[in-house]
Amino acid sequence: MKDSKSDPPPPYSAEASVSRTRTSLGQIRSMADALLRSRISASSSGADTKTSSSAASSVPTYDSRSGTQPRCTIASRRISDDFSTRLSMARSPPMTPSATSSTSSTREWARPVTDRKLRLDELKKEIESASQPAKRSNDGLFKAAYSTDILFLIDTTSSMAPYIDAAKEQVKSIMDDIQTTFLKEAEIRMAVVGYKDHQDDPNIQFLDFTTSVDKVHAFINKLKAKGGGTDHPEDVMGGLQQVVNASWKNQTRCVFHIGDAPPHGRLFNTINTRDNWDQHGSEPHRLTYKPLLKKMIMLNLNYALLRITSYTDLMAWEFMKEYADANAICKLHKLNANFSKEYLSASSRSTSRMRGSSAKSGLSFEESELGTSYSSLRHLVVQSVASSASRTAVRMTDSISKTGGKMDSTALASHPTIAEEDEGPKKEAASEELAMEDVPPQWDTAGWLDETLNVEGFSPDVVMHGARTLSDMMLHDDHIELSTMELGVRRRSKPFSQGALRVAAYARTTASTNHFVVKSFKKDGRHLAHLAEDMRCQALCKAFALEFNNLVGPEHSIDFIITTCLRGQSDNGTLQYMSLEPYIKGDYVKYNNNSGYINNDIPNDETNKAAQAFSHFTFERSWGQILVCDLQGVKGVLTDPAIHTANKDRFKLADTNLNREGFKFFFSTHVCNEICQQLELISNAEMVVANSFKFRELWPAVDNTVYCSNKLCGKIVPTAGARKSDEFPRCHWCELCWPQLESSKVRWMCLAPGPDHEFSVSRFYYESQGLAMPRKCPEHREAEETVSKPAAVGGALWARMNNASAKQKNISGRHW
């Protein structure tokens, strides 16, 4: 890979301007005829004042290199009072970037700067209007979500003496650890169910929920490890029945089952030992496992089976399948004899249901190895409770958004599902399931991207990052600058993925070979203001990432994709809102969420470490005002983050912004790693409890680092490694976008008065800036044209870049 930033782009053989003597008389006549026909067609349809044909502006182009005859394209375009653009969704030919003709998305002249300013002002007013209703309050959410009911279901037969002793010895430390984890705000109640076998007396022993750890300790101390009858299985069903009958109250509910023997019935017992009730359901109480587990699921009980021996493997497998059918996060221990079955079944059942690939489920069933390591009981319980509480918070946040800002406990009790990426109840989404296409993308297959969209929208205004850039963006949304876009997009008509409200389809833009995804709403969804806020959120996260990368080095560097929000008008006149973002190839990993979840499955993964430290860094760098979380992506390329803000007026449209309650969720589970230590981060959970913070104040100024100047890419690029061209001064390009500046060039006829002549123009460049293609050669381009020669919207860009280059050794986190 070339390292020189001054290397010229790949050679372009044609000259920048060609005399009309290079064009044959027949070719000129053909172009004139095509232009005349298009003007006649335009005048014949002039009666419709609301629709203007672009035939007059669709000047035929000619490729002097190939000698191809010119072709005139006519694009139907209608501008309404609110600047909405007609959305063309006709079937289209394959997308093959051509040098012989303009695309239907190409306009003759760019809109004037004042018009672009009006569009930005319009968006600002729409955001202000959408933010007028009072946002639902998150106050008390942390306490409500993390207040927990914990029930220990313990086999108290003779073989269980060591585990009963361990529970007795560790119950106080378990309570203390959970209280500390939950910042001493949450109510923790405990209950105990002890079970033996039918011939034992008592068969079931029960302590209902209490906040007194002394009562729990005294009750466990009275449990005697004896009995069990003359056969191996025990009365597990009787124990589960008592679990269901306990007085559950708090929103987070956890059952910890500690036992070394299966229930009665050959369904659970393959060993060749005696079973006095070998037919499931033949026990004296006639209880069976499926109705009991369904009741537990209806009660939102998270089930943790602490495995001691392999005798309970079949029980774990059968119980897990019931939870999987309820869309719970399910996990068997790898030592379970049925572990391979879990993966085989995943091919015929929902992978997310069987493997818990989504961290956003309301319920969980998890088998963990307790073995003979009694000391691990405390760790397993605390970790499981924290994970369960995080899922409860997601579920409660979703319920609040549907009940007008009130925490509805009734709704919670009957609503075990949660919000997906774009939110909405899963039971509603189920009726809106669309057919998905499960095939690899065929980017270069002719005709595969079979829909053409001509749209307008907004993208982050990517510029050089300087000493004040992040501080300004943290200060106010107006400093997260946006620019207008006009794009032609080719997408696949069949989506490949869907959430509750949106579908995703493969796409490319008409002048680029980059790969994208278009996300559109299944039906009337959020307006442009919501998409624009999401876009600004990602732009702020990207600015944080740039400073973070400068501090931690390349091994732990991360980046956020750029999102562009689009608006078009369908054939029936309905406004449609979409987002366009780069396609990321690979397996997505969830690193954390906005309510305390942390990915503990890959503790040594470097990207996972970086993600956890990055969230902490954003809180420290912003002096406790902003915390970025809900991080997921492919390796270090992240997408769809959430932002918690101390200021309730920032990012008001995002339901994922839990404000100061979100800070509590993060610090309740965050454990500083070596990257946090490298960054010298000071803030911690104890400060949250005391509501008194200390922060690192001085940060080294960022070396000049830039974003790729393609506003649809925006990749973070070190200045030294960025590609530059004399033709496009003050622009920087990543390795993917760089060669397209030349490969997309076409030859066009200049429309300026005087002798006919041609000039070359890079279609990719103007698309990357969201601008219309120029129709005049550089020598004739008028001063009032929208884009200046350096190809930046407005003269402020150069001033901002000059400010960015100013040397500053340190930045104060306190004074931003």
Automatic annotation (TrEMBL):
GO molecular function: ATP binding; protein serine/threonine kinase activity
SUPFAM superfamilies: Protein kinase-like (PK-like), vWA-like
Keyword annotations from UniProtKB, A to Z: Kinase, Secreted, Serine/threonine-protein kinase, Signal, Transferase
Region of interest: Disordered: 1-26, 40-112
Subcellular location: Secreted
Principal subcellular localisation of the protein: secreted
Official protein name in the record: Alpha-type protein kinase domain-containing protein
